[in-house]
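Re-run requested by the PI after the first attempt was lost when the workstation crashed. Everything re-entered from the original request form. Ligand of interest: fe (ii) ion.
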Amino acid sequence: MDTASFLRRRRLLQWAWASAGSASLGLPTRAWAQLRTEHNPFALGVASGSPAHDSVVLWTRLLLREGQASATGTVSVRWEVAHDEHFSRVVQAGQSLAPAGLAHAVHVEVQGLEADRWYFYRFAVGDALSATGRTRTLPAPHAVVARLRLAYASCQRWEHGYFSAYRHMRAENLDLVMFLGDYVYEYPTASNAVRVPMGGWVVTLDDYRQRYALYKSDADLQAMHAACPWLVTWDDHEVQNDYAGLTEGNSGPPVPDFAARRAAAYQAFYEHMPVRAAVLTRAVAGLASGAGMRIYERMNFGRLASLYMLDARQYKDAQVCTRDGKKGSSTLNPVTCASWNEPARSMLGRPQEQWLEAELARAASRETGWNVLGQQSLFGQRDFQRGAGQTLWNDGWDGYAAARTRLTGALQKNAVANPVLLGGDVHENWVGHVKADYTDAASPTIGVEFCGTSITSRSAGNAKIPETLAENPHFVFADSERKGYGVVELTPQRISTTLRVVSDVTRQDSGLETLARFSVQAGSPVIERT
Ligand SMILES: [Fe+2]
């Protein structure tokens, strides 16, 4: 389509919009269907996220053809929010800009919505209409809420399988998805790849954009984004395997300026995620100069739960005692690694630690029944060495044990009600009790942990799981074979967690199985298998 006809169609749409008032985007469904067949600028789907009790972020990113926008062109995109999926009862509509400098990403922060209700939304540009998304607001902060159903998911390496887990997740009747990191991977491919990604190592802004576009082309992932709002945090692979703060990891081609690579990766993350403009610490202009991105936050699901999303990657101190003096991660031996438990070392960075401690100090005043911390990794200690001595993984919380003790100390000191840690990263399901002191089995249990398996990313298998479980009795369940997600249902009385796994991650039409179910009563952090 040339520019003139693009503009003509845009004017047509504007006319249709104006003539239809606020009733709908204007053209009959059949006309949309006919016109859309030429080119779909909404091929990356729609998403919503970062909900509050009165607002939510709507996201899309236009894929435009040559001539539809110049390299520096900004495109105006229409959006509307309705009570019904046919858009006969539109509650808000407007226009938002898709700037070329942000790869024509659109982030709409819809304000003034009603608390605790579902909405439908869609976008239009030219003669093209997006898929319809479904989203919801949170309950009012002090509302009494009977139930919250959320899924936690992480680690979706394209080349390791299909995202069929999301097709099944759509049927879970969820309020929210918590995505806990490794949304994209920066690798060129894998041995025995199930799907081969386009391009090589992901290093430049253009590389990262193309990788997100590839992942977001997946129909099952798109459909799950369109089904409910997502709360998102990142881990290492959105930038590079094992990076920590501004210290690079140890995989792929060396880059002359890691800070610039990280800035490009963060920009692409912003462009592709339904997050608020407030995450940009120095506005859009700060993206190019490597400004940090504040993605940690706390929200309330009425009085039922406080939800904390943490960032254990952007501010963490570098791993210590990596084998052979390399960068990145490995196991470490605490006896020979003097610095592993150094109190000054932080997983969250001091400002985020202080923010979290202040939030936890106020937790009691919010009177929320559950305090759910979504973060990247396995929280509890996992000693791989049988009997005396320890072998720990230096990139996870085990490599930052003093910081972990500060967090469990803050949970204890503030008598935080019913802490629930959700995690990812390890590509394995781990279920366990959060201990005040992981080296002392008799120390108090102060919460529970559900660390999720991956959507697709591979793991080592179950051969060593029984002995690792025996060595770490605070864990009650582990599985290193199955891929999928977890569903947590919270009520004032209990949480019920169901581990869902796909039958065959190498098949797009994979079935779904239930691996295990657990229940925890409010006021008593004891995990029961149900
Ligand atoms: Fe991962």
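Saved to the shared folder this time. Residues 155, 182, 237, 425, 427, 457 surround fe (ii) ion (CB under 6 Å).
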